[in-house]
Task: inverse folding
């Protein structure tokens, strides 16, 4: 009885195992039929074309437009200002009257000198007639040689006195002209330092005039960048005219540093400034130094890593498959990476979704539609 029960149980277990195996087989067949097939279509990717360009070290400084020549002008004589005929911003031309002094004292000095000249001429005339008489007497031996020489000396002194007073009169006439301040050349008034009624001394600055036609950019340069400034390519961009660069040339560097900022003032001559350049405009001085190497600018989104080092996905031609290429990044500038080596001109680099790509994967370059 016991052996029969065991045989029944054995047959039941065999049937159950067979049913399980059949179910597993059917399930495997269904899964194999429903499993997705490998992707064969090329994956669209956004790309950027590598454009190699010379590597430049570029620095920028704030600058101000100033005149090339700015002169402090003043009266060559002292006196009281009775008129100032120009204001700040006035355009002046050669010979234009700028300011005047009270000429009363100078006119009186001229009259006094003229009177002295008349007196000296009278004395000289008398000395000349006296000498002529003694010269006649000397010929007839009616006077001594000593007396003749004394009369000759008196005449020489009288004539010298005339020349002295004439020279003084010319000086006073010049001083009278100097009481009127006149422009020597074309320019624009940048400062007025005297007012009518003010008493000024000889040589005191009355006006500051900038010469027209020659302007330059003035910038303050840190001492650590001063040594290479003469080797750099300089350009100036006005804030009022963005995108328009004006070629510049280093004209002068201050020999001493500013006591407050510890920077050195550099003056940049502008080669061909546009007509709209005005004195006092703000600008940016750009100084570039060509390093000689070639670099590529790529969006930072194109960078990934390979062995903990920067790399990019390069589309290999002609199969359009991906290759992970290690690169050397020299610097970062905003949203761009400056790649110093590892890429060739004209190669295509994936710039989006780089962390979801595989080596050897077939891709299709995609360009964003123009909005």
Result:
């Amino acid at each position: 009885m016991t052996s029969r029960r065991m045989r029944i149980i054995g047959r039941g277990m065999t049937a159950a195992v067979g049913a399980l195996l059949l179910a597993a087989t059917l399930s495997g067949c269904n899964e194999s039929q429903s499993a997705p097939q490998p992707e064969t279509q090329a994956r669209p990717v956004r790309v950027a074309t590598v454009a190699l360009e010379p590597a430049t070290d570029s620095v920028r400084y704030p600058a101000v437009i100033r005149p090339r020549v700015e002169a402090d002008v003043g009266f060559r004589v002292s006196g009281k200002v009775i008129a100032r005929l120009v204001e700040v911003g006035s355009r002046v031309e050669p010979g234009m009257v700028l300011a005047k002094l009270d000429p009363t004292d100078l006119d009186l000095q001229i009259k006094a000198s003229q009177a002295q000249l008349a007196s000296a001429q009278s004395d000289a005339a008398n000395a000349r007639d006296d000498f002529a008489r003694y010269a006649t007497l000397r010929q007839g031996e009616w006077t001594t040689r000593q007396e003749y020489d004394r009369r000759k000396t008196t005449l020489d002194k009288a004539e010298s006195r005339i020349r002295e007073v004439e020279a003084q009169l010319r000086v006073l006439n010049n001083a009278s002209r100097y009481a009127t301040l006149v422009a020597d050349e074309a320019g624009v008034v940048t400062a007025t330092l005297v007012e009518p009624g003010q008493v000024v001394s000889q040589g005191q600055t009355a006006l500051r005039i900038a010469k027209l036609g020659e302007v330059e950019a003035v910038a303050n340069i840190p001492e650590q960048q001063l040594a290479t400034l003469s080797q750099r390519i300089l350009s100036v961009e006005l804030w009022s005219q963005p995108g328009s660069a004006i070629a510049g040339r280093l004209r002068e560097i201050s020999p001493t540093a500013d006591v407050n900022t510890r920077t050195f003032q550099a003056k940049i001559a502008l080669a061909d400034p546009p007509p709209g350049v005005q004195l006092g405009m703000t600008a940016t001085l750009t100084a570039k130094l060509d390093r000689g190497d070639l670099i590529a600018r790529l969006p930072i989104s194109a960078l990934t890593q390979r062995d903990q080092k920067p790399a990019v996905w390069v589309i290999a031609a002609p199969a359009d498959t991906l290759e992970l290429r290690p690169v050397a990044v020299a610097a970062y500038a905003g949203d761009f990476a400056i790649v110093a080596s590892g890429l060739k001109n004209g190669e295509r680099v994936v710039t989006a979704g780089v962390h979801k790509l595989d080596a050897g994967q077939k891709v299709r370059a995609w360009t964003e539609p123009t909005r």
Summary: The chain has a mean pLDDT of 84. Residues 152 and 211 are 57 Å apart (CA to CA). Helices lie at 2-34, 104-139, 145-178.
